[in-house]
User: What shape does this take?
Amino acid sequence: YTDHLVFNSVSEAEEYLNSDEAEEVYFGRRLSIVTEGIYLSYIVQPGSNGNEYSVVPIDTDTQMVWSDIDEDVEYTEASSSEDIASALNVESGQVNLEITDDLTVSADTLFKVKSGVDAIVKIDEGKTIETSARLFDVEDGATLTLSGTGTIKTSMTKTNGIISADGTNSKVIIDGITIDAYTEKGSANNYAYGIYAANGATVDMYAGVIKTGLGSCISTNNTTGGGTINIRGGELYCDGSYAIYNAAQGNVNISGGK
Assistant: This one.
């Protein structure tokens, strides 16, 4: 599984993509180009002038953050479960959290993103949040963006999602991290899945990786209503089931990714 790619210019990105050193390159893959401290999202497209690959900027209306949207964003560092819970314990507004240490979250800890809250949780490179239960609940009217190059890893022992969004105005955005619910076939926790969208919730994936066993990477369920799943980049890996399980009357739009 590859890391999110970051370059300092378009020419640098295209030189790498068309070189023998490039790995896991495909049309629709997203990457970031840093311009004056701002991380801008680009997408891999067919090349020209003898090159197989080129990069073009994502349309401004869908421009997404991979890491810091600009150098003026202020993050609150979180190095414990208590730090995360405290920062999210607000009734409305913007919450920007940066996970700077490895964390092990107890099974009875569930972080709620309340209606009216727009939360960005950025997990630093090489850092992992480990849990044995659901980690985030996103209420109707709330948005959770997971960014950075770190990992959320679960050892859940039943069918459940690491992240759940519930309601037509709830949204989960994946833009760079790895969600790891993968175990070998036959393992007790093989049915854990990545993200659950209920009752009209939206899941937007722009970059990153979701890995699962027999549970789906992203799922709806006909007992709780459909949702909208937009895959614009990133990688979904499911060993033995459906990468996207759309059991309800929902919408699935795929314009990139793998």
About this structure: The chain is about 5% helix and 45% strand. Confidence is low (pLDDT under 50) at residues 60-72.
